[in-house]
DNA sequence: TTTCTTGCAAAAGCTTTGCACACCG
DNA sequence: CGGTGTGCAAAGCTTTTGCAAGAAA
């Protein structure tokens, strides 16, 4: 937790950006929340306690988080941008249930290794990647 | 080639849809084009020969292609929807160069197999998936 | 003739931007 | 103070929708 605040503070210092109450509030909520928040979801949560907070501020601040490496933009195919907190832990991928919209995370070092191998074969330098498996989770398998 | 037309014709018949000149034109161009076309790119190509064609018609028609399984919607993170022709061949994944926007395709059955294994472990039924590796291609590695 | 399509323009999302005022350093 | 940041509203983009006229079955 303190980790995230420090990263952001250092980033702001480096860039000559200012610390404001809004940025604090948004960062707190972002770090507290579960992954894969859309900007709107975060905004609505924040509005409950901070009725004056502007939509644009949330957009701008999330972009800052992405810029300083605290968050990553994701697009799952509905028209909304979602932000996921980056962690120092292992990279993880997603199982997205098209039935109930649940998003499960998983990680598999063997897949990661094969990706690197593919990249080497193409003289490609991977900076980032994403793997998403769409389908039905155990709860929804029977329903449809 | 004829394959694509047949699929679409059958689909239209089944759904009570009508065959029109516009749909023919769009299908021809779509089948002829390389993968990963954005709606706008396709529209611009088509406009050259068919100045009266409407933007909305292209959108609507591409949705039909997706619905009948001829095409798949893809979102690579720029705000545009792209359509990729589905083939009966092996599924392939993407290497997306963030330097020059080149999109390379690759396939790796070992990765596919590991995905199935992950799904089994979570009692998840995969209907679809997507793997994208973002980074720099061989040409761009030195430049940045 | 009946139903589906088209092209246009308007509307609808989501995101960004311009601007006056407020705030941080 | 001087430069940033904020909130609001307006503008931008991509995509969707309503509708009258046109084309297919």
Features:
44% helix, Dna Ligase, domain 1, three-stranded antiparallel sheet, 144 residues, DNA-binding, globular, 2 domains, 5 helices, alpha+beta, homodimer, Arc Repressor Mutant, subunit A, three-stranded mixed sheet
Radius of gyration of chain A: 18 Å
Helix content of chain A: 40-55%
Order of helices and strands of chain A: HHEHHEEEEHE
Mean pLDDT of chain A: 87
Q: What is the name of the CATH superfamily of the largest domain in chain A?
A: Winged helix-like DNA-binding domain superfamily/Winged helix DNA-binding domain
Question: Mind summarizing the main beta sheet of chain A?
Answer: 3 strands, antiparallel
Unreliable residue stretches of chain A: none
Beta-strand fraction estimate of chain A: 15-25%
**Coarse morphology of chain A:** globular
Oligomeric organization of the protein chains: homodimer
Tally of helical runs of chain A: 5
Tally of domains of chain A: 2
Kindly state the number of beta strands of chain A.
6
Task: Please tell me the CATH architecture of the largest domain in chain A by its name.
Answer: Orthogonal Bundle
Amino- and carboxy-terminal Cα gap of chain A: 40 Å
């Amino acid at each position: 937790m303190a980790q995230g605040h420090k990263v952001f503070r250092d980033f702001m210092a480096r860039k000559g950006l200012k610390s404001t109450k809004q940025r604090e509030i948004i960062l707190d909520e972002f770090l507290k929340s579960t992954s894969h928040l859309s900007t709107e979801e975060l905004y609505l949560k924040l509005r409950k306690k901070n009725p004056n907070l502007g939509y644009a501020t949330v957009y701008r601040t999330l972009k800052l988080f992405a810029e300083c490496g605290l968050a990553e933009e994701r697009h799952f195919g509905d028209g909304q941008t979602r932000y996921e907190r980056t962690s120092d832990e292992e990279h993880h991928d997603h199982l997205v249930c098209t039935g109930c919209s649940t998003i499960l995370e998983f990680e598999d070092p063997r897949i990661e290794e094969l990706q690197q191998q593919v990249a080497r074969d193409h003289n490609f330098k991977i900076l980032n990647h994403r793997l998403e498996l769409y389908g039905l989770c155990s709860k929804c398998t029977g329903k449809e």
